[in-house]
Amino acid sequence: MAALVAGTPWMRIRVIPEFAPPFIFRRHFRRNFSVRASIDSDAPVRVRFAPSPTGNLHVGGARTALFNYLFARSKGGKFVLRIEDTDLERSTRESEEAVLRDLAWLGLDWDEGPGVGGDYGPYRQSERNAMYKQYAEKLLESGHVYRCFCSNEELEKMKEIAELKKLPPVYSGKWATAADGEVEEELAKGTPYTYRFRVPKEGSLKINDLIRGEVSWKLDTLGDFVIMRSNGQPVYNFCVTVDDATMAISHVIRAEEHLPNTLRQALIYKALGFPMPSFAHVSLILAPDRSKLSKRHGATSVGQYRDMGYLPQAMVNYLALLGWGDGTENEFFTIDQLVEKFSIGRVNKSGAVFDSTKLRWMNGQHLRAIPFEELSQLIGERWKSTGLLTESEGPFVEDAVQLLKDGIDLVTDSDTALSSLLSYPVHATLTSPEGRPIVEDKLSEVSAHLLAAYDSGELFGALEEGLAGWQKWVKGFGKTLKRKGKSLFMPLRVLLTGKLHGPDMGSSVILIYKAGNHGIVSPQAGFVTLKERFGILRQLDWEALNQDHPALESAVHLKVFFWQYNNCLSFFVLLKSLMRCSLV
Q: Which of 369, 455, 525, 547 is deepest in the core (most CB within 10 A)?
């Protein structure tokens, strides 16, 4: 596997030593060098997303996956998924499945990885232990690493001494210069040991980060670090380096919190003779208070947003804009448009603030961009599953979606929108401060004429003709009352819908009329039919409503209560009669 990669010159470290020593660290070599990297643009693009299956897929991880995906697709490269499950205590197969499910939901299909396979597998770190041990032994043989027999107590003592001297807590190098006899003696006793990497005592590492520009570290702040634990388990930085190298990863696009790891990984790359990939470290996603986004700020995982009714295309669009833009004012992108426009050079190195309000707005834009037939099916199935309707398709569903879609940003909003249309909170509206001017504008007279139109069958006849019939009837009704515009439509809206605001009134009333006739609304939906609404209007005490009295709301509630109570009594009397007939 290594041989396949060694001849792939996508980015190489160039050593600039003071005394031109070879890059094999023996005890007597002076360890002093500087490292720079250069990119070979002819190499095939291969990127990877490597989540740890220790929980749900965070939106920050999803954005990192997205940037890798977009970069690969825009360059005609490969997007590799690798599972970093070396944390045996916290990693679970359930978490892995959840991560895979979330990535698939977002539409970020991987070219190689779990469930897909590929030429560079296995794609779970837990299945690659033999390879890690092989490369660790290679480093031991070359002198780049050595066995360290220090106990935990000794290491803690070194840290305490460093703190007292106000020095970085780096390893003192006790076993770096041990004689072969000392090492053999500890091995014979069975003393546990780790593998430590020899780090030059002087020098620096410089890389050209594709997002952050030149980044450098001094090597004297690092100290010899562990690559294999005493239990034989490899350490994260060693695993990642071996994996990226043997999988021929050309570009490592990851979160900025991994930037400090680059120093250790670059040293391992060179020691193993592997070319080093290009690095791009993406900024953190911040909360509105500019702290790191966490659970205390609300939903943070992709699964949570899916369950809240967000669309995958909206999530992808919004996540792409967290730190990236195409240089225009455009904010609406499909996944194909993002692939076409994406450039790693336009990723901002400053933190991006996660704005849930903007995400909701963007979801609404994508929701309304869905073809109407698909949107109607999506919302219709939602209404049936939540128990609002008994059917998920048909003319009523289509009309309702058409009427309500502009007020729906999330699929779950459709429940509230339909429930509001079906409800009739007329008593709350009439007794509210906003409803007071309408009541005082001779609303009782409008109500009387409206009841007359209902009793004569004139109104329902017009509604049978649809929107044209409604418009013709309203025009005549306005002439009779000598009202037009707001003075006509606002009283009618309140009396027929029970609300001051809402979607188009004519379409709303027609839909309410159809709902009462077709029986598509579930009994538990709280639907008040037009017939029932007129019954409530007939019971209103307009004298009380026109008085500015504290007991006004109670009086209206009492009237409505008695009307509903009498209707319930009538229903139960009818039910009792039907039961008697069935017994006979």
A: 525
